[in-house]
């Protein structure tokens, strides 16, 4: 069965949704070998379902549990490997480069919509944007509307999820 990596959006998984509860919900959806990585909504499991079905089933189960819709982005290990391989900022520390995962391909308009950009760099990916924060994300005042429709993980986290998916 293929491995799927789900990235929950706009949820403080450490408070609103405990990782053991997230694994249990995935198990209740009949997803095999559910496992999580850090308390930020990263869930891996095996399933023969396609992305749309996973989003619908897991989304309904999560909404029933937390009481509101939870955004879910689904990726394959191959897609995560491509994110790492195509990183346009390979010399930057992994904790200062984010992949902003989106449902659809971003466009140049997504980059042009950036506000308060100083030294941050933004680059297009396939279904994600790359964001490089040279001074760190906590110091940045960058406003990017695409952040409202996706979820970001630093490349260290992406690499760890890929490693976990390969086990």
Can you walk through the features of this model?
The protein is 31% helix and 25% strand. The longest helix is centred in the middle third of the chain and has 16 residues, at 51-66. The strands form 2 sheets. Strands 2-3-1-4 form a 4-stranded antiparallel β-sheet, with helices on both faces. Strands 6-7-5-8 form a 4-stranded antiparallel β-sheet. The mean pLDDT is 94. It has helices at residues 19-28, 51-66, 77-85, 108-112, 155-165, and strands at residues 3-9, 32-37, 42-46, 71-75, 97-101, 121-124, 128-132, 151-154. It has 2 domains: 3-75, Alpha-Beta Plaits; 78-165, no CATH class. A hairpin with a 4-residue loop joins strand 2 and strand 3. It is built from 5 helices and 8 strands. It starts with a strand and ends with a helix. It has 167 residues and is of the alpha+beta class.
What secondary-structure arrangement, pairings included, does this model have?
Blueprint (H helix, E strand, L loop, with lengths): L2 E7 L9 H10 L3 E6 L4 E5 L4 H16 L4 E5 L1 H9 L11 E5 L6 H5 L8 E4 L3 E5 L18 E4 H11 L2
Antiparallel strand pairs: 1-3, 1-4, 2-3, 5-7, 5-8, 6-7
Helix pairs in contact: 3-5
- Our count of domains comes out at 2
Taking Cα atoms only, what radius of gyration do you get, to the nearest Å?
16 Å
Name the beta content range: 15-25%
What's the overall geometry?
A: globular
Profile the largest sheet.
4 strands, antiparallel
Counting DSSP H or I runs of 4 or more residues, the number of helices is: 5
- The strand order across the widest sheet is 2-3-1-4
* SSE series: EHEEHEHEHEEEH
| Class per helix and strand makeup | alpha+beta
> Tally of extended strands?
8
Share of helix among residues?
25-40%
| Overall pLDDT confidence | 94
Segments where pLDDT lies below 50 for 5+ residues?
none
| Span between termini | 13 Å
């Amino acid at each position: 069965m293929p491995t799927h990596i789900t990235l929950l959006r706009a949820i403080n998984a450490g408070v609103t949704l405990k990782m053991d509860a997230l694994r249990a919900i995935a198990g209740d959806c009949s997803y095999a070998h559910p496992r999580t990585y850090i308390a930020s909504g990263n869930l891996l499991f095996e399933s023969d379902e396609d992305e749309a079905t996973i989003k619908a089933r897991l989304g309904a189960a999560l909404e029933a549990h937390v009481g509101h819709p939870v955004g879910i982005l689904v990726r394959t290990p191959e897609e995560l490997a491509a994110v790492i391989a195509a990183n346009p900022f390979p010399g930057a520390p992994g904790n200062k480069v984010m992949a902003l995962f989106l449902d659809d391909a971003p466009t140049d308009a997504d980059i042009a919509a950036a506000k308060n950009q100083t030294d941050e760099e933004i680059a297009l990916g396939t279904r994600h944007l790359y964001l490089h924060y040279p001074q760190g994300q906590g110091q940045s005042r960058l406003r990017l509307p695409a952040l409202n429709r996706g979820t970001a993980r630093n490349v260290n986290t992406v690499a760890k999820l890929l490693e976990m998916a390969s086990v």
